[in-house]
Prior knowledge:
By secondary structure, the protein is of the alpha/beta class. The chain is 69% helix and 10% strand. Strand 3, helix 9 and strand 4 form a beta-alpha-beta unit. The model has no long low-confidence stretch (mean pLDDT 84).
Amino acid sequence: MKHELEYIGKKVVDIHRELANKLEDIMDDDYTEGLEKVGMPLEERTEYRAELLRYLGESLYEGSETMMAAVEDWGRRTSDFTIRYNVKLSDALRAVSFYRRVIWDAVTLELESRQFAPITLLDVSKIIDPLLDKVSAVVGNVYEEYNDRLMKVAYSALEELSVPVVPVAQGIAAVPIVGEIDTHRAQLITEIVLKEGTNLELEFVILDISGVPMIDTMVSDQIFQILKALSLIGVKAIITGIRPEVAQTIGNLGLDYKGVTTRATLQQALAELGFKQVKSPKW
């Protein structure tokens, strides 16, 4: 049987480009039209297809384990290629089935013309199927990794929007903080405020924590770390929005806010910095 597999494998390698062109013919019209619509060059996709078909042919006499690494690398490169053209995961996976079909057509033709034993088809399947299964697995993994990266970028952008640095005058900005403060968010607040403090050449930053639902020992420590970081770049911080119940909690916990400039409201902090309410003139 080995010589039959070797013969079929070398035959596939000999005609792998012809088979790649045949793939284009047997694929769904909707699929190929979609590729054309997104601008995927026919020559490039044919080259990728021919490469895999050559690997599949070589596997019939080299062994599937020998070709597994090459097939896995092909799957990653091809997935990057299809992602670049916004091909959906479902379409990328569906395309794998066409490789199986074109290989079977070539093998069946050789079985009939050379009168090979029918069991040869089973032997071919045992070699080809694991490789195509590996391609499907790699494609799925690459798309998942890509989507994870997109989600992280989107989440990071959303996080930055949750820490707005609002310039109110030359050298002064307000940072309204809404929601819970954990270690990760405290680090994010610190990074954004430090960056904007430098970019805007700030002298004062007003941290308004009226939207923070709970102040405990951990949150208080996180706030102190933010204030410490600001002081290192010469920015004076004022904390506003400490509600009466929060102030009581701070007292009960024995948290020390001595040395920290605090004001009840953002308006009070702005007034101390020289802002005055302008009354509308009466006409």
